[in-house]
Amino acid sequence: MDEINEWCSPAANNRRQDLHYIAILGGRDPVGFIQTYVPCECHQDGWWLDENDPGLRGIDQFLANAEQLGRGLGTRLIRAFVHRLFEDPSITRIQSDPAPANRRAIRCYEKAGFSAIREILTPDGAALLMYCDRPR
After folding, report:
1. How far is the C-alpha of 73 from the C-alpha of 65, rounded, in Å?
2. DSSP code at position 72
3. 53 pairs with which residues across the strands?
4. Which of 23, 7, 97 is nearest to 65 (CA)?
5. Would you state the pLDDT for residue 10?
6. In what order do the strands lie in the sheet with 93-96?
7. How many helices (H) and strands (E) does the chain have?
8. How far apart are CA 36 and CA 58, in angstroms?
9. In this predicted model, what pLDDT tens digit does every residue of 10-55 receive, in sequence order?
10. What does the alpha-carbon distance between residue 71 and residue 121 come to, in Å, rounded to a whole number?
11. pLDDT band at 64 (very low <50, low <70, confident <90, very high)
């Protein structure tokens, strides 16, 4: 939990629109974490310097227990979160940026409606930029 607090505290203590959630399964069991952020508000941290669309949202998440991988929980979590985000009519697109070598994460995003755009270099290293556009 200390690691999560350390990771989230900078965003939680500024004026950005970052939102953080604990994913619960069956109404009682925490299974992971998911967050959303506005990429064009991350410039001061060196992220998404070419992004200026205030309607774009980025997401990051993880499942807490390795034994829960490969059971579809990540896909269900991302689909539900994306659906919820698109309830806001001002959101134009959602992005994610898994590591290019993380085939499991990439496949999970693809099953949730994301498409690979291109490989990019982020402050954390190489990433695969993926987009999910608002359903028509």
Report:
1. 11
2. S
3. none
4. 23
5. 47
6. 19-25, 29-37, 56-63, 93-96, 125-133, 115-122
7. 3, 6
8. 5
9. 444 455 577 666 666 666 777 778 889 999 988 888 888 888 899 9
10. 30
11. low
Mean of the per-residue pLDDT values of the chain: 82
Closest CA to 60 of 77, 73, 41, 84: 77
Q: Given the structure tokens 């959101």, which residue do they identify?
A: 91
User: Which DSSP string corresponds to 81-126?
Assistant: HHHHHTTSTT--EEEE---TT-HHHHHHHHHTT-EEEEEEEETTEE
DSSP 134: P
Q: Taking 60 as the threshold, does the pLDDT of residue 3 lie above it?
A: no
Q: Are 76 and 82 in contact (CB under 8 A)?
A: no
Q: Crossing angle, helix 73-85 and helix 103-111, to 10 degrees?
A: 50
SS3 per residue for 50-65: CCCCCCEEEEEEEECC
**Buried/exposed code over 18-56 (b: 16+ C-beta within 10 A; e: otherwise):** beeeebeeeeeeebbbbbbbbbbbbeeeebbeebeeeeb
Q: Amino acid letter at 114?
A: F
Closest CA to 19 of 67, 69, 57: 57
